[in-house]
Amino acid sequence: MAEFTLVVNGQPHKVDVAGGTPLLWVLRDSLGLTGTKYGCGVAQCGACTVHLDGEATRSCLTSVESVGARKVTTIEGLSPDRSHPLQKAWVAEQVPQCGYCQSGMLMTAAQLLSQKPQPSDADIDASLGAHICRCGTYQRIRSAVHRAAADKGGAR
User: Fold this and answer.
1) Is there a domain that residue 156 lies in?
2) What is the tens place of the pLDDT at every residue in 75-108?
3) Could you write out the DSSP letters of every residue in 4-72?
């Protein structure tokens, strides 16, 4: 066991865990941030996606020791009051069914919009294509990303 200081959602947290512990389990079990989901454990489904210094990262295969001084943002830190344009668009477009994949999708979409404020359908598909949504709401997800882009000041 070792002590690590992580900056998660803007707040420093000390955790005492083995260095190889996946960030996912530190977030969920040590810090109680359960919005980040376990899906497959091999970085294939995207449910565990968080941001490390703004970059969408699969937390199930990211060891806590590899995080270092990078800032971690979880779905809880995207917008604590659910006022982020993507969160509003997700509701308006009725994206979630079971909702299990949604936090990872939102985190990846947030990175996409930070890099491409007006993404094309192809941009959205390329960015979110490695996420698995068992409910198959991909068309609604694409619509929600376009809506969020428009709400941030662009054209839909």
Assistant:
1) no
2) 999 998 989 999 999 999 999 888 889 999 999 9
3) EEEEETTEEEEEEE-TTSBHHHIIIIIT--TTSPPS-SSSSS-TTEEEETTEEEETTS-BHHHHTTPEE
Cα 4 to the center of its chain, rounded Å? 22
Q: Which pLDDT score is estimated for 155?
A: 41
**In what helix (H) or strand (E) does residue 108 lie, and over which residues does it extend?**
helix 102-115
Q: Looking at the domain assignment, is residue 7 inside a domain? A: yes
Q: Which of 55, 76, 97 is the last residue of a domain?
A: 76
0.85 cut: is pTM over it?
yes
Number of structural domains the chain divides into:
2
**The last residue of a domain, from among 27, 57, 76:** 76
Burial bucket for residue 144 (CB in 10 Å: 0-12, 13-18, 19+): buried
For a pLDDT cut of 70, what percent of the chain falls above it? 97
